[in-house]
Amino acid sequence: MPIAKAVASGYNPSMRRWALVLIPILLVLVLGMAVSDRSRDHSLDLVRQRGTLRVGMDASFPPFEVVNAVGELEGLDVDLARLLAREMDLNLDIANIAFDGLYEALSCGEVDLLLSALPYDPLRTGDVRYSAPYFTDGLQWLYRVDSWAADPDAFEGEVLAEAGSEAARLARQNWPRARVTEVLSEQDVVLQLTEGAEAGIVTRVSACSFGLPHDGIAFGPLISEVPYSVVARAGDTAVAEAVADALDEVMASDDYRAAVVYWLGEGCWREPR
What we know:
three-stranded antiparallel beta sheet; about 25% strand; 11 helices; disordered N terminus; alpha/beta
């Protein structure tokens, strides 16, 4: 640019150089503020403003959740939801939702959490966050205390399992030297153990519901583990963290122990081996 025109227009080469430096910096700051605003998580604020924790569950899985004879929800998950809401100083609203619609209800914002004996699913972790387990189910090895069947890996006798079950399949797969006998139900497994059979496999929840361990029947190791967790939306970090803190407090409480013992029995309060 000719000097005369530069002077006339107020052109200043040093100002141009500063503009080239400052404009990218300003753009970065503005974009950073916009991203920060978008990423700010207000999920817990919204729940606290509402004053109510909305929990979804499918009340068709006793003893975790079921509708009783007078139309009320009850079960371990119902009690846990109440304890969590109390720990978080919130009211509680439980929505009874068919199992197939639970995750959609969470995604659409109809509920804040799912609490319905839900196992960890690695295929869903892009959309939801799972808490630490509040209960571990799975296939439970049972044995007579007066037998040699305490260690399933060393046992070569008869193992009882429900006909056509995962327990029967795993027993044949894991212990080919054992003799797997299939019976009509898990209750038949326990009945025959009571009558003198040496070993059997049922779900941990079933074992506890039958009042085990008792009558000379003991718990061995879990053959498989199915941890149940509380589920929040992946983006609701503040809600998920608040629930995790509340869950730690609740699980250490006498109230939660009393709920587990009431719904599942003393045997299920103990940590699985």
